[in-house]
Every structure is written in C-alpha cells, then in structure tokens.
Design brief:
Blueprint: E1 10-13, H1 23-36, H2 43-50, H3 59-66, H4 72-89, H5 96-106, E2 111-115, H6 119-128, H7 132-135, E3 139-141, H8 153-161, E4 169-173, H9 176-185, E5 188-192, H10 202-208, E6 212-214, H11 220-225
Helix pairs in contact: 1-2, 1-4, 4-6, 9-10
Length: 228
Amino acid sequence: MHSEPLRFDAVLFDCDGVLVDSEPITNGVLRDMLEEAGWSLTPQDCMRLFVGKAVKDESARIEAHTGKPLTEAWLAAFRERRNQQLLARLEPIREAPQAVAAVYAHHGGRIACASGADLFKVQLQLKKTGMLRWFEGRIFSGHDLPRSKPHPDVYLAAAAALSADPRRCAVVEDTVTGVTAGVAAGATVFGYSPPELGHDAPAALRAAGAVTVFTDMAHLPRLLATWP
C-alpha cells in the first residue's frame, strides 16, 4: 500500500522516441524512399520535418516536392521496409524498460501507450523491446481515431479506457506535436529531451506546454511520484 495518495490516476506514454529509439531507423527508410521518388534530404532535415508526424498526414508536402501522388502502394512499401529495419535494429530508449516497470508497479498497472503511429508498428516495437507485457490491451493509435496528434483524441481514448479523468493523467512525450496533444487533452505533460538526434529541444517542449523537461528516463518514476 502507498502511504500517500498517487499524484496521477494514470500515466500515458508516447512510443517513438520515448519508449523505443525508432526515429533514426524510420526516418532513414523514409529519407531513402523520398530520394528514390526525387526529393533529396539530409538525415537531419528529414528528422526535423517528419519526427512526431504520421507520414500519411504529410502527403501534401511530399507530393509538392516529388511531383508524384503519394499512393497507398507507396505507403505500404514504406511500412514494409520500415518494419523490416525495426525488427532487425530496434533498441529500447536507454532505461525505458526499467522506468516503465517501476511506473507500472507504482500505479497498479494503470498505464497506457498512446502513439501517433499505426497500431501494428507500436505493437511490433513494444514486443521487440520486451515492453509489451506492461501495455498489452492498453495500446492506442492515432490512426484508429478521427484525428491523430497534435489533436488530443488518442490521449482522450487512452484515459477513457482506464476510466481516468485526463486532467488526472500524466503524459510522457518527446515532440512538440505530442506535447500539444497531451496539453489539449488536459493532462500534465512531462517532456523527455535527451541530447540524441530525433527529440525536440527542451525550450520547444516547454513552449508547447510541458510542465518540466527531463533528459534521463531513469529519473521518470521519481519525477512522477514526487510531482507537486
């Protein structure tokens, strides 16, 4: 039993860049396929443009630069190449499995994963990195809802499934797009911004509404447990 009440009724995690180090892999595949389609980007520019966003939601931008329609067949080929690379190379974010296990235990299992990515990818990634057991049955994708991030729908769906008031939920995010979604849901958003490429800068996360920014996932359980 806890000697004091929990500060949050539930903790909702983003996936890419928060639980798994997928962004360099996914963006590498996207950069290669955009180059094949006629749009040449550096890895850094590709990250800056697309991190935190669903590729299908960026079709107008891609079509403007390639001069070609973004077809379902192209998206399917992208997802196939991406999934192969993730299965081969994906690693968890450093200390994320330990942090998730601690938060899961402290909150009596009241955690969820709420991602802008497609459900198959999220499940594949959590399984590959050994974290699926803590989220099974509580994984939500913006692809399955009317609107994805930066809209709050995926966080509202996750909170509702846990019978939690979104205003009593903590959200863990590493992009402006995701922080914006968590804030719009009414949650308290914790920004994760390590120095590695693929995460938005601390100042940008704070400007979007994150109440604090941390750089090491090992600090998250204590941060949540002792938040004012």
